[in-house]
């Protein structure tokens, strides 16, 4: 009875570990086009207050939709299932997800009419069907008053686990450790004998 309880507990732990909850996926941000502000504020973990000015120092501001494109690289392939974005509340924004080859996987929109604050930025959240195999996301303005602002942008999901090495790779790795260990042992033995 005790063995089956231990085995059941182990299997439950393994299954729970495999189904980890979605977390904020770390990103590297870059941009093309004309904008003002520090890109580091877009993923610093600080969500600007609703109603704060769209071009304050804790945001990145730009004009004319399509003029600036912000790229959020996931550092590998990820499955993204939700996002949080602080944007100027009366404008439209597109969040497009691409695979490593540059093929469009999905697009998510935040539109101006959804805003509920009367001025400045607003934080929106979006949950959607998981987008698997995403390497990066591009964020652009797609309409509005041509005065745009981005604050915090977070993508939630999971990064793909690195591939498990082939048995031949494991054999080479273990063999290499053996050779290095043997050489170190032989060198130590010679020094002691002298």
UniProtKB/TrEMBL annotation:
It comes from the Bacteria. The keyword Signal applies. Residues 1-22 form the signal peptide. Residues 164-187 form the Ice-binding protein C-terminal domain. Pfam families: PEP-CTERM. Coiled coil: none annotated. Keywords: Signal. This is PEPxxWA-CTERM sorting domain-containing protein. It comes from Sphingomonas horti.
């Amino acid at each position: 009875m005790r063995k089956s309880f231990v085995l059941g507990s182990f299997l439950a732990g393994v299954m729970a570990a495999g189904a980890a909850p979605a977390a904020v996926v770390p990103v590297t941000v870059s941009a093309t086009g004309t904008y003002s502000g520090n890109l580091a504020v877009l993923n610093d973990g600080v969500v600007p207050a609703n109603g704060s000015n769209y071009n304050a120092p804790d945001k990145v501001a730009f004009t004319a939709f399509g003029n600036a494109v912000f790229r959020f690289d996931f550092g590998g392939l990820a499955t993204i299932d939700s996002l949080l974005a602080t944007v100027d509340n009366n404008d439209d924004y597109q969040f497009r997800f691409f695979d490593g080859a540059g093929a469009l996987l999905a697009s998510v929109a935040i539109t101006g009419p959804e805003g509920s604050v009367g001025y400045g930025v607003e934080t929106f959240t979006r949950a959607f069907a998981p987008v698997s195999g995403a390497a990066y996301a591009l964020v652009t303005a797609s309409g509005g008053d041509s005065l745009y602002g981005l604050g915090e942008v977070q993508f939630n999901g999971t990064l793909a686990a690195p591939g498990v090495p082939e048995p031949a790779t494991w054999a080479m790795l273990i063999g290499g450790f053996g050779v290095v260990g043997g050489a170190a042992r032989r060198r130590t033995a010679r020094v002691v004998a002298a």
